[in-house]
Amino acid sequence: MPQVGLWYVNLSDSDLTWTAESAQMSFFNRFEVGLSHSDVDASKATGEGSVNFNTITAKLQVIQPGQFGALTPAFAVGYMHKDTDNATKIPDAVPGLGGSRLYPDDSGDDYYVALTETFYDNVGLPLPVTLNVGMRWTKGYLMGVDGFGNDWDNPYFASLAIGLPTPKFVPGHMALGAEYADSSDVGEDRLGREMKTSRMYDIALAWLPTPKLTLQAIYLNNGSDNIYDGLEAGQNPIKLGDGFVLSTQYHF
Question: Contact at 8 Å (CB) between 183 and 197?
C-alpha cells in the first residue's frame, strides 16, 4: 500500500527551513521501502546555498504485533541510505587542506531496531496508547544533512502516542504524541573539530479527518543554543534551537 508525505520545518533560532517530500510502499504488511528528498536552507547563517538531502529506506517487521500473545510487541529492523550535496569546504588558507571537503564523507548508512506496542483493549485502557522504543547505528552529523563522520554511534529513540477523545463536530480522530532522539557523536571533521548532534524532542498534535489522511502540527526542540552559537565559537554547530513542523501524509 503506497503512502506519500509532505513536511515543512522552520527552526527560526537558526534561520533554517527544511522542506521534504516522501513516498513509501509496503508489501504484505511486513516489508516497506521508501525514498525522500529534502531541501535544507540555512544559507542566512552559513552564507552557502541550500542542501539537497536524499534518503532511501527499507524496513522489515520481523515480529508482528500480537504474534505470540496479546502483549507481543512488533519488532522491526531497518536500513537508511543517506546522501547530501553539502559543499562546505575547508578555508583556502589552511595548508594542505584548503578548498577540500570539510566532513569525511557525503553519504552514509543508518541501521536501527525498534519495538512497538499498542496498549488499549488488551490491558483495559480507555484510550489507545502506542509506545515505540529503539536504537540506531549512525555516522551522520546533524542526521547526515551536513555530512558523515568516521565513527559509529548508537543513540536510542522513543515515542509515545495517545488517542484523544474527539468532539462530535470534528470528523475523524485526533492524537497527541511525543518523540525523543538521543544525542550522537560521530568523530571529528578534517580540522579535528567534534561532529556532535544534540538530543531532540518534539510534541505533536495529529488529526486524522479520514482513515487515509493525517495532518500534524509539531513543536520541535534541538537544544537551547542555535547554529550561530556554534559558528561564532569556531565549532561545528551541535544545537539548532527550536521551531515548528507541519506535515501531511496520505495512505492510498
Answer: yes
* Cα of 9 vs its chain's centroid, Å: 11
> Cell for 175?
492524537
9 strand-pairing partners: 18, 245
Exposed, middle or buried: residue 240 (CB in 10 Å: 0-12, 13-18, 19+)?
buried
Query: Which pLDDT belongs to residue 218?
Result: 98
3-state SS, 146-205, equals CEEEEEEECCEEEEEEEEECCCCCCCCEEEEEEEEECCEEEEECCCCCEEEECCEEEEEE
Q: Residue 209 corresponds to which amino acid? A: P
Instruction: Give the pLDDT confidence score for residue 85 in this predicted structure.
Output: 92
Q: What does the DSSP 8-state code read for residue 73?
A: P
Query: Per CATH, which fold does 2-251 belong to?
Result: Porin (2.40.160)
pTM, 2 dp: 0.92
